[in-house]
Amino acid sequence: MNMVLLGPPGGGKGTQAKRIEERYGLKQLSTGDMLRAAVAAGTETGRKAKAVMDAGKLVSDDIIIAMIGERLGAADCKAGVIFDGFPRTVAQAEALDRLLAERKLSLDSVIELKVDEEALVRRIAGRFSCKRCGAGYHDEFQRPKAAGVCDACGSTEFLRRDDDKPETVRARLEAYRRQTAPILPYYQGKGLLTQVDGMAPIDDVTRAIATLLDKALRR
Ligand code: AP5
């Protein structure tokens, strides 16, 4: 099964993708994580992407499409993929159709997480992750069980993303409205789009997504 998780910055895509990955044995492909890894490794892609990401704008379609194309052939994608943060433009959505068709694969489900803009700013402002294993947390909604200690690996070092500053978040929301929202009608036209209330508690959102995926699997 291949699915797309759509939604605005801070909408809960990464949080839910990790849970679906475990439950359905799919591979999460997050273009944001891939770009941050490229920046950290100092690759050419990372050098090109850094300033664009820091400004809250979208990295060019050709870089993103090449990155996904390379990754799709890997063995860990065989059982199916959760695309998280991709596609983000109509050109990327069309390229995904081509990449899947070349591999005789198809897209089974596109789920949009719907979240109020006010909530997004609060979610992003409180977000942090473990420096060692990447587990995600929130100051208010998802605290580690023991304060200052990662539940998953025990590390006491945490990070906040460079692009989570309020002015960058505003630019990211604007990019979502202008460049990403137009792909909703694209997927609606193909009969693939369903929506989930992303304002609900994290476990309830997971349950709603699982119900939709179970239905898609039975088709
Ligand atoms: P990317 O990393 O994809 O960022 P994003 O889309 O802005 O999404 P986020 O990671 O901020 O949020 P999320 O929806 O995953 O929410 P999360 O689960 O963390 O992209 C970063 C940048 O890379 C872009 O700006 C762009 O420059 C570039 N880029 C990436 N992909 C690209 C592409 N395809 N094309 C071009 N450029 C690209 O949740 C947020 C917080 O809320 C967490 O703390 C979580 O604990 C909490 N939370 C989650 N769900 C709930 C809930 N239901 N209730 C309460 N709290 C919740």
In sequence order, what are the helices and strands, one letter per element? Answer: EHEHHHEHEHEEEHHEH
Bound molecules: BIS(adenosine)-5'-pentaphosphate
Largest sheet: 5 strands, parallel
* First-residue to last-residue Cα separation: 11 Å
Helix content: 40-55%
**Total DSSP E strands:** 8
Mean pLDDT: 95
Return residue spans where pLDDT drops below 50 for at least 5 consecutive residues.
none
Subunit organisation of the chains: single chain
Number of helices: 9
Q: Shape, please?
A: globular
Quick description:
The protein has helices at 13-24, 31-41, 44-54, 61-72, 90-102, 117-125, 166-180, 183-189, 202-218, and strands spanning 3-6, 27-30, 81-84, 109-114, 127-130, 136-138, 158-159, 193-197. By secondary structure, the protein is an alpha/beta fold.
